[in-house]
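User: Can you predict the 3D structure for this chain?
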Amino acid sequence: MDSRAPVDSGRLHSPGKSLTELENIEATQGMSTETAVTFLNRLMAMVDVLVFSSSLNFSEIEAEKNMSSGGLMRQCLRLVCCVAVRNCLECRQRQRDRVTKTSLASNKPQDNLQSITGSNTCKTGVQNVAGNLSPIKDPDRLLQDVDINRLRAVVFRDVDDSKQAQFLALAVVYFISVLMVSKYRDILEPQREIARSGSQISRNIRQEINSPTSTENPVTFPEANKEKDILTPIEDIQVESSIPHTDSGIGEEQITGLMNGSDLETGTMPDVMSELLSSFSSEVKKSQESLAESPIEVLKPASSVTNVSQGKGMNVKEILKSLVAAPMERAESGAEPVSYPDPTVKREAQAILPMQFHSFDRSVVVPVKKPPPGSLAVNTVGGAGTTSNLVTGSATSVISPASATPKSMINTTGAAEAASTSSSSSSSSSFVNGATSKNLPAVQTVAPMPEDSAENMSITAKLERALEKVAPLLREIFVDFAPFLSRTLLGSHGQELLIEGLVCMKSSTSVVELVMLLCSQEWQNSIQKNAGLAFIELINEGRLLCHAMKDHIVRVANEAEFILNRQRAEDVHKHAEFESQCAQYTADRRDEEKMCDHLISAAKHRDHVTANQLKQKILNILTNKHGAWGNISQSQQHDFWRLDYWEDDLRRRRRFIRNAFGSIHPEVLLKSAEDYGTDEDVIKSKKTFRTQAVINQNAETELMLEGDDDTVSLLQEKEIDNLAGPVVLSTPAQLIAPVVVAKGTLSITTTEIYFEVDEDDHGFKKIDPKVLAYTEGLHGKWMFSEIRAVFSRRYLLQSTALEVFMANRTSVMFNFPDQATVKKVVYSLPRVGVGTSYGLPQARRISLASPRQLFKSSNMTQRWQRREISNFEYLMFLNTVAGRTYNDLNQYPVFPWVITNYESEELDLTLPGNFRDLSKPIGSLNPKRAVFYAERYETWEDDQIPPHHYNTHYSTATSTLSWLVRIEPFTTFFLNANEGKFDYPERTFSSVAKSWRNCQRDTSDVKELIPEFYYLPEMFVNSNSYNLGIREDGTVVFDVELPIWAKKPEDFVRINRMGLESEFVSCQLHQWIDLIFGYKQRGPEAVRALNVFHYLTYEGSVNLDSITDSGIREAMEAHIQNLGQMPSQLLIEPHPPRSSAMHLCFLPQSPLMFKDQMQQDVIMVLKFPSNSPVTHVAANTLPHLSTPAVVTVTCSRLFAVNRWHNTVGLRGAPGYSLEQAHHLPIEMDPLIANNAGVNKRQITDLVDQSIQINAHCFVVTADNRYILVCGFWDKSFRVYSTETGKLTQIVFGHWDVVTCLARSESYIGGDCYIVSGSRDATLLLWYWSGRHHIIGDNPNNSDYPAPRAVLTGHDHEVVSVSVCAELGLVISGAKEGPCLVHTITGDLLRALEGPENCVYPRLISVSSEGHCIIYYERGRFCNFSINGKLLGQMETNDSTRALLLSSDGQNLVTGGDNGVVEVWQACDFKQLYVYPGCDAGIRAMDLSHDQRTLITGMASGSIVAFNIDFNRWHYEHQNRY
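Assistant: Here is the predicted structure, written as structure tokens:
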């Protein structure tokens, strides 16, 4: 059917394109012929169902779908007509195949055509129909049976709807009439038409090839045919194809009045057919859609309906594929497959001329609208092949399915679809060009009809044969619609033509008569004029629907393309996003794997370190001379010690521990004098480069510290949103330790901090392993629960560091890449602030606050002014908040020189001349030197460096190491920083007096002191016997030469500390604070005070991050390290002075005040009803307790909770008298006094009979709510409630009876350590939870708590023990043998070896100041330092039962069997005071919280309260009052 299409398809395209490309575009717009035919057949199958099978009420559907009434049937009629004409054309094709094959074979123009379209096209389009399912049963008939049946059904289906049926009948009458007359003429003149058609082909082809504008311009008829040019504009449609006419006489007239209105009825009949056929498929599409959308889907006969309705999200190409996908059922076509008469003929397809309708005596050209190039010319997915065959052979793209080339799509297909398009096009071109067509089914061959029989038939017989089936239908319509048609078909004079025609029809069945009737002039005019109008209306409606559908499809296609493009863009975006996420995920996983690997390796390192430490600890325990493998001979070996990093509450590091890496450094040499450059060299080296000093004197932006902004935890930080993994934060960091800066990685989980050093780092490899041995935290792990404070710190003047303080009283310092990282780290750590010591909230913003903000917000200045804290504690506070740290020797805490007299034999601390003027910096104390420095500043000439007074700083790493060179680990640090050599002997710190003189005379020495001068006597002793050389005067440099007034290092430290706390220093200290931390540190005030140092020592003077040159930056960093650093400036106004001691005399609670001695010694005596000796007294009298009380326990285990009344302020006031009972400090427990509830106060559990009840058998918790008792036969100790007397916990752990208990001082929350000693010669360290009121951390496991440590080393039953949590020490004594010092981690540090006769210790008391007083049998006392040095001893006549140290450790109180309370000076056992004797022996004693009342438990069953004021024995008080 479409084999002629390639002949004229070029008219659609510009001639510049290759014919191969042109051939790909057929009337089917790229659809293969099989696809087009199959599609049309499927549409007709649906029409058959609608018309024949269904009883649907179309009017309801039309109303529901808002369609015009009768639209469905009219659409069906258009489709039926379309297929009928297609079948007509197929019949004609077959006839021509038979008649003209010989004549065409020798035709020269045909050869030209053949060369154009391909020489091997051996099958016609009809033959190529898939499956050969042709509906043609008799090619000689005008209409096939199936078409006649369809026409009849369309007309008569809804005959009840008379108006609609009449319209359809009229249109069908016109349609059949035209076909019959046309067939009649074809039978009359067959040969002439064939001859004409052959010559027309060559002319058309030549015209198309030679016409470059044929696509844009109206096509003219060939002049050789003697025909005039025709231009037929019908509704702005350009004529794109010429229809050559046969010699039937049609076409002799020029159609000029086609659209002028007057000739409309007569001029448009065949044109209407063209429009009809061009719009058939759009109507089909519309009817299909309406049917698909209708609820009655049961009746859909073909899958095409469903596919269309479901294909909204698909592109048009896929819809078409789905429409033809289902195999064509034979029932749908309504016809048996009929073979072609002669399949072997070649070139016939190219010979076929466009079909024309010969309508009576008029010829009509059917122009077809050509879509503009690149636009979507899709009207519908209808039967395209039929249309072009009916209308014209030019294969105009009236119907263009979307599977055509991209040119026919509207903005829909990109490069991606071009490939699929070309593949579909190639399949159709293989058919067009007559290629091998391997994919097409073989055509069945049937013997052709004998030509002579067909040719020799008479015209009448031919007419009869051709029209015998269709004539009855026409008659039937004429008869059934006679009333209507008779009124419609009127003659030229208005007469009813049908009446006379009916007579003829009814009387005769002759086809010839009917044809003759129709050929008569009246009938022709009437049918064309009247019935033609109906057909025109039918076609016009199709055309309008066609345009509407086209617009709809274009719009839908555009929308679809827009949606597809958007989806495609989204897909691209999602794909990119997915790839990005995959890459990110992979990177994260890689980082996580790397981090896990890092953590694992770090854990291995830590385990290794821990294992080594554990091994060393076990070895120490076993091989110690008091250990299982120990022997006396081992004591002869040299023990090495080093300063532990443990800090007490005042941040003093005083504890020495065993040093496994100890050495006397025998190989170390001394530096010579030539090794040192001159001061000028030093100055020159400092002038090598200069950066702009940015010294900011403005006040900082104040941080609001009142609110609580810590609700912004890490989880809400935008930077960190992935908490799924084990690591919350991981960042590069530097571990800052003395003389070590180790690069590594800091990792923070939800519960721990890890640091893992990068051992491959070049800088780390250069660090001396001896130094690393003293560096803790290289493979560090710290639990969140251990963190006590977090401070912001500076490193190399940059605020990028943090110092974290731990529960084990050590600290670790890290430097980070930038301040943002610092903030992230702080927000990853627990909310501890800067701890609880300074009166600041425990919040993260406090950790991030500036030093000035911390200083202003804390309460320490007020406490210092009120003398609640000492000068030492206040200075240490200032150093801590100003950024001074033990971890960076360049920022070591700085303390002032306070004493100037180092020559006298005795030092009188009451003479002002012995004290330094603290209002001046150390460099300007000497007037001559002050002039020198002032002149240097005034005459400064260097343009590169700002003027300053001093080239060196008062605190540098070098000066710090030189002060501490005698103690490890600073000895090793010193050697590491000093090229592995000790200093030249003349420069070594060898004499305190000499160092002071140098600070006054040497222009390059302005060193201040370090805090160790006030608490660490060991720094002055060369205990490891280092070879420090010989001075020029022959003096061996060994221990530091002390002033004459200090007989031993402990004396020097104690007296130096007394000087620091003296009234002279207290009155001036604020001026020294102004110089170091305050407003005189920088700016004009610093110039006036002669207090300007090198600019690189000041905070904010340089931004290292702005230095891009690594060499310059390293030099700058080294410069800062050498010069020292200023503390942060804490205040920019004068510091307030300390209040005078006399102002505070009558305030009730000032521990350091001096009061007039007006009180009596004994305040009160309280006698209990029981005469049982009071063997334990615990005075927990802090006012914030719920029940401040003095708890007493008697020998019979009857306890009393005696309420405490804070009456200190009233004593000595006018009108005070002991008779006023409510003013007495102690009120007897009412349950004891009334003898009513004694059962609530009696501990009835049996103790072991061999136990002698004494003060060591009991411990009272700090809140007075629980009593711990030992001595039970089952080897336990027990916890009782003081409120009810009930047993609350039994604690097992020892292998024998528990003989003594002790409690450490309590901290916030009431937590403390409990130590139990036993006859099994061991001690167990327990943890008391103030929160849960049990031994142990876990309330769920209170029955079986585990001890924190097991302390071994004694050979006998432990009889006395004392524990100090602040020092981390447990000191215990057995029945016989030396007292042992353990750490609270279980390490045996040392034995306290007393004199020969001191071998039976009975009482032990330790003060936080580092004094340990031990009482031995027979009245012997010894005073040891915590580092094991015997400081003093004495013997008394009394058998002492109780001893106490004052809170400052300076005074000792004793009491014994003779009933006398004595007060001693602890350092040298000088007796200070003896209280009046009591009538009974003293069994126990305790001090109130304010150190003002001493309560003693007497053997007579009473308690006595004494007035005590340790200040009255203070040297200043004694000198003044």
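The first helix runs from residue 5 to 8. The radius of gyration is 59 Å.
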